[in-house]
From TrEMBL:
<keyword id="KW-0249">Electron transport</keyword>
<comment type="similarity">
    <text>Belongs to the ETF beta-subunit/FixA family.</text>
</comment>
<keyword id="KW-0813">Transport</keyword>
<dbReference type="InterPro" id="IPR014730">
    <property type="entry name" value="ETF_a/b_N"/>
</dbReference>
<protein>
    <recommendedName>
        <fullName>Electron transfer flavoprotein subunit beta</fullName>
    </recommendedName>
</protein>
<dbReference type="Pfam" id="PF01012">
    <property type="entry name" value="ETF"/>
</dbReference>
<dbReference type="InterPro" id="IPR033948">
    <property type="entry name" value="ETF_beta_N"/>
</dbReference>
<dbReference type="InterPro" id="IPR014729">
    <property type="entry name" value="Rossmann-like_a/b/a_fold"/>
</dbReference>
<feature type="domain" description="Electron transfer flavoprotein alpha/beta-subunit N-terminal">
    <location>
        <begin position="24"/>
        <end position="212"/>
    </location>
</feature>
<dbReference type="InterPro" id="IPR012255">
    <property type="entry name" value="ETF_b"/>
</dbReference>
Length: 249
């Protein structure tokens, strides 16, 4: 393989408690710590491992989002990616618009493999990889827990309800990553410093002729209801009695 393309997304850090805006239009990100989506981080790690094994020559990371997403791209560059592309937009594009933008990037970069996280932890859509494969008419292997290169094909182990399924797909292909694929590395300070000098190109959706206007309207976003404190019972009979009083039984 010559080039691997890895789309990454900036999301609210998984260790931060989300906060809903007062007008219930979404999650308030002001002043919150943002980071690379965990599944995207796994995708970057896998691409770097393939390059380190001599299976690829270049890794290109791409993100679609606000200017601050450059921080996410720099993190991917520090992990070992070679260059980055930011398609800057203040909107929050839906999966189909993201897939259309990625298709345009694929046509421009001509990668042999696209690895992306199976989903983002903020919206949990789990749609972009599948839509991109359909738009490109490329083979796809989703929920990958193991990847190996066999000539001009990929051997992908994927997790399904019944257990594990092994696929052999020809390149170029789309692969989406699951949690058990790898453990992403920590970025050493020298690599973080080197990442600042790696090329990062900024464009916008209009450059690719893609309309990112949303087709769906969010009616309201609300935090989950506060749970009542639990109680401890001494006997099974007392438990059944309490459940009957609350209307569960």
């Amino acid at each position: 393989m010559k080039t691997i393309l890895v789309p990454v997304k900036m999301v609210l850090d998984a260790n931060v408690r989300p906060r809903v805006r007062a007008d219930e239009t979404g999650v308030d990100l002001s002043g919150m710590r943002l980071s690379i989506n965990p599944f995207c981080e796994i995708a970057v790690e896998e691409a770097v491992r393939l390059k380190e094994a001599g299976q690829a020559e270049e890794i290109v990371v791409v993100s679609i989002g606000p200017a601050k997403a450059q921080d996410t791209l720099r993190q991917a560059l520090a992990m070992g990616a070679d260059r980055a592309l930011l398609i800057e937009t203040a909107d929050s594009p839906e999966p189909l618009a993201i897939a259309k933008l990625l298709r345009a990037v694929v046509e421009q970069e001509k990668p042999d493999l696209v690895i992306l996280g199976k989903q983002a932890v903020d919206d949990d859509c789990n749609q972009t990889g599948q839509m991109l494969a359909s738009l490109l008419d490329w083979p796809q292997a989703t929920f990958a827990s193991a990847i190996s290169v066999e000539g001009d094909r990929l051997r992908v182990t994927r997790e399904v309800d019944a257990g594990l399924q092994i696929l052999s797909v020809p390149l170029p292909a789309i692969v989406t990553t699951d949690l058990r694929l790898n453990e992403p590395r920590h970025c050493a300070l020298p690599n973080i410093m080197k990442a600042r000098k790696k090329p990062l190109t900024v464009s916008n959706p209009a450059d690719y002729g893609v309309d990112t206007a949303r087709r769906l309207t969010v009616i309201a976003v609300r935090p989950p209801a506060t749970r009542k404190a639990g109680i401890r019972v001494s006997t099974a009979a007392e438990l059944v009695s309490d459940l009957r009083q609350t209307g569960v039984l």
